[in-house]
Amino acid sequence: QSALTQPASVSGSPGQSITISCTGSSSDVGGYNHVSWYQQHPGKAPKLIIYDVSNRPSWVSNRFSGSKSANTASLTISGLQAEDEADYYCNSYSSSSTLVVFGGGTKLTVL
Amino acid sequence: QVQLQESGPGLVKPSETLSLTCTVSGTSISTYYWSWIRQPPGKGLEWIGYIYYSGSSNYNPSLKSRVTISVDTSKNQFSLKLSSVTAADTAVYYCSAYSGSRRLHDYWGQGTLVTVSS
After folding, report:
1. Minimal Cβ distance to B105: which of A48, A97, A101
2. C or N: which end of chain B has fewer Cβ atoms within 10 Å?
3. Shortest CA gap A74–chain B (Å)
4. Which residues of B touch A103 (CB under 8 A)?
5. Between chains, do B108 and A101 touch, taking CB under 8 Å as contact?
6. Among candidates A93, A98, A104 on the partner chain, residue whose Cβ is nearest the Cβ of B44
């Protein structure tokens, strides 16, 4: 069982927007702004797309955005494209003995 | 650019020790914490642990009793040993460059599948 809770799957049509939630606790998501998101295509390594809740690396499209409210972080993808179909994982620093915690992952299907 | 490459046996027998090495290029090994993460087939990511170039390390409590991560600064490599493996340890093992200040996995290796089977 993962420390952070994500929906198993989400879907959307091209051009639409979707949001993936990531719920933790005050020991991780709620207590720190060190939430990051990773995109993983089948058979590939995860790739960083959001860090510090809402910051994007320079090579990541501005269609990807992040936010946080209390113990829940969210990843929003706007203007869905076929290439966005992938698994998405949230990650947070934790003050518990497990210093690095991941969400269980969310499979995004572009219809 | 920063590159990480995992290497090691793809098949390990139950009760034996899994050993993997990650070779780092494109950056000094003192720049990051060096992390191991695994992903069982069809499942999510699990952090195993990380080490700093000084040798300071932290492990996931769920694996701590079986895990050792070490670093060889002269070779720009770090390694993972996981003892007493079972089929549940079958996974793709990734090494990553973890930023201690920004708390994120900046770079990842391509991953290597390790199967535990007799």
Report:
1. A48
2. N
3. 16
4. 44
5. no
6. A104
SS3 letters for chain B? CCEEEEECCCEECCCCCEEEEEEEECCCCCCCEEEEEEECCCCCCEEEEEECCCCCEEECCCCHHHEEEEEECCCCEEEEEECCCCHHHCEEEEEEEEECCCCEEEEECCCEEEEECC
Tell me what pLDDT residue A15 has. 97
Cβ of residue B52 closer than 8 Å to a chain A Cβ:
no
* DSSP SS3 for B65: helix
pLDDT per residue as tens, chain B (118 positions): 999 999 999 999 999 999 999 999 999 898 999 999 999 999 999 999 999 999 999 999 999 999 999 999 999 999 999 999 999 999 999 999 999 888 999 899 999 999 999 9
Cβ–Cβ of A36/B61 closer than 8 Å?
A: no
Residues 6+ apart with CB under 8 A from B46: A102, B37, B38, B39, B40, B60, B91
φ and ψ of A44, to 5 deg: -115, 165
